[in-house]
Every structure is written in structure tokens, then in C-alpha cells.
Write a structure and sequence with these properties.
By secondary structure, this protein is an alpha+beta fold. The protein folds into 2 domains: 46 residues; 174 residues, Beta Barrel (Cyclophilin), CATH 2.40.100.10. The protein has an 8-stranded antiparallel barrel. It contains 6 helices and 8 strands, in the order αααββαββαβββαβ.
Amino acid sequence: MRFLLVVCIGLLLFNCEDKQTSKKNNPTVIKDSLAKVKLQNASKIKQQSEYPRLTDANAMEFFLEYDKEHKEDKVRIVTDFGNIDIQLYDKTKFHRANFIFLTKQNYFDYTQFYRVVNNFVIQGGNSDGYDIAKRRKKIGRYLLPPDTKRGYTHKRGAISMPSGEIENAYKLASPYQFFIVQKKDGAYHLDGEYTVFGEVIKGMDVVDKIASVETDEGDWPLKTVFIKTVKIID
């Protein structure tokens, strides 16, 4: 009986030691738990905004730094009428960096050419949609100072940035909008007033098609002219 008791106690101790050894030699649970925590943290970080909300106080410093790492200078505006390829100017660094930033944030997706004046300009980057207002709120509210002394003119095909407000003594630019000069003779009376930051290198026939659509008295197209997307090209 005493021998049987000793054997039982021995087996019990062996099983306990075996379970402890198994835990020490099989750290999978710990690794999986850590991996899960890392994935959760990574997911949270990814969900957080990668960039600060922009304001007049921080926008210029932000784009100065953004310009150093994001050197793309060609974009394609995709519409139902066809594509418009744009070469952005390096010299107007803040306006170029702003346009590239908004492109990468997918801001322009399903905005509109909301103002069309045949034989003058087509103006885009805005919409009366709630989703567009939400995008702006997320990115921030800011204006860009003019950069009009780089030698660029409002020739046919020039892409420029309109003022942020109707009464705007300093011609601060609305960063979310742009216009393309469609007038064959150019619109040189705008030189010095607005910042030209690029030009159309392909697709002026598309610009002409958009410029010819029927509009109301406020120059708003009667049939919506969507910008499906703006994407970076080589």
C-alpha cells in the first residue's frame, strides 16, 4: 500500500513537471499574444491621421517639409470627357506640394468642374456634396500665399489657383481649387493676380470639350462634369 502511494505521488509530480516544461518549451501563446497586440497597435496607428490637420499657422511649414520627400510633378485629371495631363512646376513648390498632397489624399475624387466659361477658363476641385466638405474638414482649413514672380503666365493650358475669397486683398489662394486657361489667346490679364503652378501637356482637346458644355447663368454646368480622380503619373 505504501509502495502504491509513493508511485501515485511520483506520477502526480511528473505530470506537474511535464506541464510546466511544456509551457516553458512552447511559448507560442506568448508570441501569438504579442503579435496580436502589435497588430492591434499597428491598426490603431494606421487609422490615425498620418498628417496634422492643416491651418494657416502650420500649412507653409508642412508643405516645405512635404516638398522635400514628395517630388512628383505630373498628374492626370480623369473625367468622362477624357484625360488631362498636367506638368506641375518645381519653382512654385508650395502649390505643387499642395496639389500632390491633395492628390495622394484622394481629395479630388468626384469633385467637379463647377465653373465653366467658354473661351476663358474651366474651374474645378469643388462640389456642393457633403462628402467633399467632410474631406476638407479632415485635411484642414488654410490658404496659400501667392507666388506670382516665377515668370509663368496665364497662357492657354496654364493651371492656376484662384483666390480663397471674393474680397481678398492679398490674393491668398484656395488650395482645394484650380482653374485651367482655355482661351486660345491666353488670359494674361490674370498675370500677377493668381499663381500659375503648372500647364497642360496633353488633353487640351478635353479642356475644350468641357468648356463647351451648356451652363446656367452662374457658369455652373447644367450637366455635372465630374473629376473622377486625379492621379500621379510618370
